[in-house]
Amino acid sequence: MQELSAREQRNNIWRLAVAQALAGANSVVAYATGAIVGNNLAPTPLLATLPLSIFVVGMALCILPVGAIAGRYGRRAAFLSGAGAGVLAGLLAVVAVYVDGASGFWLFCLSTFFGGAYAAVVLSFRFAAADAVEPARKAQALSMVMAGGVAAGVVGPQLVNWTMDLMPQPMFVATFYAQAAVAALSAFILIGVRLPRPVATAHRGGRPLAVIVRQPRFIAAATCGAISYTLMNFLMTAAPLAMHMHGHSTASSNLGLQWHVIAMFAPSFFTGKFIARFGAERVMLLGLLLIGVSAAVGLMGAQVPHFWWTLILLGLGWNFGFLGASALVLECHSDEEKTRVQSMNDFIVFTLMALGSFASGGILSVYGWNTVLWVSFPPLAITVIALAILRLRAKPTPSPAEPVG
Question: Which residues cross the membrane (predicted)?
């Protein structure tokens, strides 16, 4: 891999962190408005959260193509393609809220699909930062880029609050214009990213993917990453609509989402150091435990503080679970295998997340918020048991820097 100077590394991390913040704000807009707009446009309440599920489907379906673009043309090309999808998502949402009936609903679903495609690209920011630094700094570089999401936790909800009444009819139209503008600004920031060009073997060298994904370490990373993200999305998708159903204001819901996103990303300033000191597996288990605690808090009541603390603890759990899993993925591949392995990991994570997202709205509409919370516990228990078994059975694996046969 082409070496980058210390200045280029710092420039990349700064730009990727800012782009992470802007893209995170786009995702917050989707989650803050998706279920409410979906409920207004959908032909049946059962489809209210479908736009958010389509958002996750967009992530899952676009992860592998994004990896292919990055492997052949470089990560920056993939980044700019994603930002373009983000602009399109905002503009399509504007058109959708002006269209009456089912046509507007399905157009809004299309807009959230493109929003998911943008989010799929943003997922690779963390790996891009880690790939461009020396091995000892990979976990910290990954964490610092993810820390950009702290700003998203402030900017995203406030973007909704500042714009939702600027053009009161139709609802959120100014918000969606702002969503497109923020994605365009992200593209401008990403133009200055300087990353090594992919080498000829980057998309075809190394071990077969089937061999890599059978490693106990990879299985542990993909399992924890998938469950952490799936349950985070499962609960976060339902929470704004559940608050609305319990008579709480949109402003209260937006504030809850703001603290949730801050909790998702604020620990990233030190998660990398935790991983370096205690190991990725311990940090992953801590994340799963916190997600369980968040669901337990939600079961204690349906007042605004219960929802807020559920979302805050959920964000903390996601951070430790997902970043721990991401750091473990970095130990599973050599340099020439990285694009395929990282893309496959994210594909597994977000395919499972999409399935959970589809279930969330239906369970909430039919059975209520408490059932959504109870459903979270079995996957957590199964994952913790599976990780314990895998850890006991895992054999030492060669370092990616060592020859592998």
Answer: 12-34, 46-70, 77-99, 105-129, 141-160, 172-195, 216-236, 256-276, 283-302, 308-332, 344-366, 372-390
Q: In terms of residues, how long is the chain? A: 405
CB-CB contact of 331 with 208 (8 Å): no
Domain of 339 in residue numbering reads as 6-191+209-393
Assess contact for 272 and 145: CB atoms under 8 A.
no
How many domains are contained in the chain?
A: 1
CATH code of residue 373: 1.20.1250.20
Single pTM value for the model: 0.70
- Is residue 399, in this structure, part of any structural domain at all? no
> Residue 270's closest CA among 254, 259, 286?
286
Q: How many CB atoms are located within 10 Å of the residue 199 CB? A: 13
| 328 occurs within a structural domain | yes
Total Cβ atoms within 10 A of residue 241: 24
Would you say residue 383 lies in a domain? Answer: yes
**349 domain residue, yes or no:** yes
Q: Cα–Cα distance between 243 and 375 in angstroms, integer? A: 18
Question: pLDDT tens digits for 162-208?
Answer: 888 787 678 789 999 999 999 999 999 988 887 766 555 445 566 77
Q: Is the link from the previous residue into 396 a cis peptide, with omega within 30 of 0? A: no
Per-residue pLDDT reduced to its tens digit, 355-387: 777 777 678 878 888 999 999 999 898 888 877
Residue with tokens 């470089």: 74
Map residue 200 onto helix, strand or coil: coil
Residue 190 CA to residue 75 CA, distance in Å, equals 10
Angle value at C-alpha 272, between 267 and 277, nearest 5 degrees: 115
